Amino acid sequence: MPRNRFALALALTLAACIGTAHAGSKQRPTLPRKSSDARVAVAIYEFTSNLPEISPRGATEQFKTALVQSGQFRVVERARLDRGVVREKQMNAAGQTTGSTSQQQLRGAEYIFEAEITELGSGTRTSSNGVNIGGLQVGGARNNDEFGLDISIVDANTGDVVDAISVRKRLKGTARSVGGIGALINRVRAEKGKGGVAYSPEVQHQSTRKDNFDAVLREAIEEAVYELAKRFDASVADSK
Fold this sequence. Notes:
Layout: H1 3-18, E1 40-44, E2 48-49, H2 56-70, E3 73-76, H3 85-93, E4 111-133, E5 136-155, E6 161-179, H4 181-191, E7 205-210, H5 213-232, H6 234-238
Helix pairs in contact: 1-4, 2-5
C-alpha cells in the first residue's frame, strides 16, 4: 500500500477510535392495552417551546400519537376542534349531513396534560482528545447538549395541578479531525534517507455527527408517556 494511503488509513482509524459514539437508550417494557372504558380521558393542547429546533405543532402530534398508541389513555380532541369535530357538527346542524352528530355532546376530559420544552443546556459535558505522531495530528471531541420536557397533570374539574413529570435528554455529538498527512510522509521518507518532498501532498479530514433532534424528542415523549401511565395505574409502576 502506498505510504500516503497507509498514513490516511491510520489517521482515520485513530480518529474513529477517539470519536466512538455512545450506546443507545434502555428499552422500556411494552404496556398492555386497556379497554376503552378503562382508559382515563385526557386532553392536550399545543406544546410550548422557545427552541427553534422544535416545532410545537409537530411535538404536539408526536405526544398525541404516543398517548394513543400506549393504549393507556382516551385522548379527546381539543387542539383542532374548529378544523374537525366542530365543523362536522355545524354541517350536521345545517342539515348538510345525515345522522345526529350536532346533538351529541363532546366527551369531557378528566385531566389535561400541559407539556413544555423547558431548557437546552449547551455543552453540559464536553471532552476532547488529540494524538500527534510524527507531524500527523488526529483529534476528536464529544459534546452533550441537554433539553428538558416537563408535563403538568391538571385536574379538569378543579384546575389543580395534581402531579408533574420531568424528562431530561442529552443530544450527543462527536467531531473528528485529521491533519498533517504530508508532514508524516516527509518524516517517514527522511528516516529512510530519501529526503523530504518539497510539495508533499497535504490531506485534511474533518467529520461531525450529532444525534437526530427529532428522534431524541420522540424518545423523550415516549418516556414521558410511560411515566404518565405509571401515575394512573399502579400495575404499570410495578412492571418497571
